[in-house]
Amino acid sequence: MAKICEFNTTRDCQFAQGFDGFERVLHIFNTDWHGVRAASAYAPGQKLAISERDGLDGEAIRHVFGIISKYRINRVVFQAYSHVAANLCESIHRQFGREVQIYVITHVTSTQFENHFEMEMQALLLQQLGKGIIKRLGSVKPRFNEVIPAYWPNTILNFSPKIGKLAARMSTVEGTAFVPIENSWRKNLYTNMLAVQNCEKIASVFAVNFPTGLEKIRTMDKLSLTSFKRGVDLLGFMASMEVLMNVTLAECQPMTQLESFAVGTPCLTAPLRMVEFEDDPLLELVEVEALDSPYFLTGALDRVITIGRQPDGELQEMIAGHLERRNLLAALSYAEFLSL
Amino acid sequence: MVSNLAGLARKAHGDKPMKKKPKTGTKVDVDALIKADRAGALDLPLFDENYYNQQLPQFAQQEAGAFEHFITVGEKLGLRPHPVFDRGYVLEQALEAGADTGEGFSPFVFLLENDISPNRLFSVELYRAALKEAGVKPPGGQAMIVHFLGSWAKHRVAFSPYFDVHFYELNNPHLVNSATNPLDHYFRVPRTERSDANPMFHAGYYAQTYQPGDVDPLVDFLHKGCGQLNLPNPYAAQELLSAAFVTPENLLQYIEIRGE
């Protein structure tokens, strides 16, 4: 049985942004880490999914060498890191030397260091950087060089999926909200659920995880559970919603928000503090300052829905303007990081 | 089916099918070559005396006149003048061209006179085009393979859509910037010890899965494996299915080397 080594699959390419100059860039990411995989899938360049769970054998590593050689790859970008990625990184360096520059983009926040695996990976990255195996470390979390000074000081910006205009708001159902977050302390599911429950403009809420126990203290009559979705199904479902909730306690640049914007649906998040978008009217509208109280989240929901229901299409214009600027800045950030 | 495979193989090889009548090339004066060999002055890169002798039992090895031995005895016994010479492939091309391959027919001479390819990993057309592109005037009165063997190091141009020199040299770093001809090197290394010459073709996987016997796995794939939808690596079906379908043509395109 061949190990997982999926090159340029449809799901990793069909919504990729197209920018010239990225043809010889190969993004390598873990097949099971959905957010990171989405960030990689929407970026321009070639794509390779590997698996921390499955590992890589000699045949798979040989295949990666073949891909790098055939596509004349000169820059490899590991999107997030694992032990399997680290071994592959060393193998690529041994085989290609200076011909192929290796970069790593981390997608964690220091909040996640609670999971010691994340710090273990950072330590490994620093070792490989020190040995000259890795050329540069970058992060999608603003100012991550305050966490680890060896990091590139600028922020790598994530791309949104490239979707045709067809998807825009054709099937939106008024009064619907989608809360696609897992039930963990960091993801703040309960507060998000209470906020939509309290919002009079919302009649139906869809979630992929149940806020266990909440039904004992509150009526959850608006809530329906829906299955975990990805790809076209996910985007189509997001397009049918009036608003998405992703107000979490620690975040980098949530792909959920970018996917939601790409189909014209506003998505609330915590403040992302990106200097590039300090004056962005859309982010100003959808970012919620107080994260641990449903009261503030409901207020933000009300504001977003009110503007969204205006007949002048102001919200859609804000989303379109944001995405255009976002993807251009994302391409520039990648190009600068990779010295393209 | 056989003719389909032959056509595919031709396509794989990158050359157009020969017309029914062979082209009239330079007439090879075999006697003159034998004389030159006897005098120790044979200048024919497609005949490697040491390589030839290695195929003979020690008592029969020729200290002098090895070329004459090859022409008069060795070729009929199926011995090879050079590692890159694939007798079966040359014969196949001769038959397709309608040549009389009866008694007295010499595939070796036919190759020299008709400027055809000695094996499936050398494309006369591609090599000629690559020379032109590099501003080198293709040789007249000399088979391309002879020119290739004699002066590849000077020009280092492409000679096959399926043999990636850069990839091969990655696996054989001692060849980088050396005068060694990579195709020559490839066929001199024992089959089971050869490095892969094509990024997308995993010879070890192919040999283990399809058991091509003594035939080089990549040659076997180009000859008939792709026609039988044998896969060049364990990921090919998955990668082709996400872009197109697994057909012989797509398999060939899949392993074709991309330009810069």
What does this protein look like?
The complex is a heterodimer of chains A (340) and B (260). Chain A is α/β, with parallel strands linked by helices and 340 residues long. Chain A folds into two domains: 5-156, Rossmann fold; 165-326, 3-Layer(aba) Sandwich (Rossmann fold). In chain A, 37% of the residues lie in helices and 14% in strands. Chain A contains eleven helices and eleven strands. In chain A, the strands form two sheets. In chain A, strands 1-3-2-4-5-6 form a six-stranded mixed β-sheet, sandwiched between helices. In chain A, helix 6 packs across helix 10. Chain A is globular, with a radius of gyration of 20 Å. With 260 residues, chain B is an all-alpha fold. Chain B has helices at residues 2-13, 30-38, 49-54, 66-74, 87-96, 107-114, 124-133, 144-155, 165-171, 182-188, 203-210, 217-225, 236-243, 248-255. In chain B, helix 5 (87-96) crosses helix 6, helix 7 (124-133) packs across helix 8 and helix 11 (203-210) packs across helix 12. The chains are: A alpha/beta (340), B mainly alpha (260). The A-B interface holds A 2, 5-10, 59, 62-63, 65-67, 69-72, 95-96 and B 164, 166-167, 170, 196, 198-202, 204-205, 233-235, 238-239, 242-243, 257-258, 260.
Which features characterize this protein?
heterodimer, A: 340 residues, alpha/beta, Rossmann fold, 2 domains, six-stranded mixed beta sheet, five-stranded parallel beta sheet, 11 helices, 11 strands, 37% helix, globular, B: 260 residues, mainly alpha, 14 helices, disordered N terminus
Topology:
The complex is a heterodimer of chains A (340) and B (260).
Chain A: E1 5-7, H1 10-13, E2 25-30, H2 34-42, E3 46-50, H3 58-70, E4 75-79, H4 83-96, E5 101-106, H5 116-130, E6 136-139, E7 176-179, H6 189-198, E8 204-207, E9 223-225, H7 231-239, E10 243-246, H8 255-262, E11 267-269, H9 281-286, H10 294-308, H11 314-337
Chain B: H1 2-13, H2 30-38, H3 49-54, H4 66-74, H5 87-96, H6 107-114, H7 124-133, H8 144-155, H9 165-171, H10 182-188, H11 203-210, H12 217-225, H13 236-243, H14 248-255
Helix pairs in contact in B: 2-4, 5-6, 7-8, 11-12
